[in-house]
């Protein structure tokens, strides 16, 4: 799905910074939706929702990181950005694994906790766009 629609989505979202907030909220709803997966069809729909969010958020977040770098040290700073996002992915997986020890049989709480990070991220992006006026 990503390969098929990546160019189209890239053209649609270019220079529309506010879409990162929408994409993050779609991510949040997709991960919260994991709590309600009961069969293969629902799982497939949820995976599609998460993939759509990824196609919106990933290019915009990389564009933001690129716009915040200095020309002289862009490679080093983008490398640091990639390392930090990688650490975030590993930390998220570790956190959900640890929370499963406590909330395995209450998936709404488990995935609600994980989805709350998406809500916080959307709020931070919204603040940065509205108050700080970040541009790409």
UniProtKB/TrEMBL annotation:
Membrane topology of the entry: Multi-pass membrane protein
A Gene Ontology molecular function term of the record: transmembrane transporter activity
InterPro entries xref list: MFS, MFS_dom, MFS_trans_sf, MFS_Transporters
Chief location of this protein within or outside the cell: membrane
Cell location: Cell membrane
GO CC field: plasma membrane
Pfam families: MFS_1
Positions in coiled-coil regions: none
Domain Major facilitator superfamily (MFS) profile: 1-136
Keywords: Cell membrane, Membrane, Transmembrane, Transmembrane helix, Transport
Transmembrane segments: 18-41, 78-96, 102-127
UniProt xrefs under PROSITE patterns: MFS
Protein name: Major facilitator superfamily (MFS) profile domain-containing protein
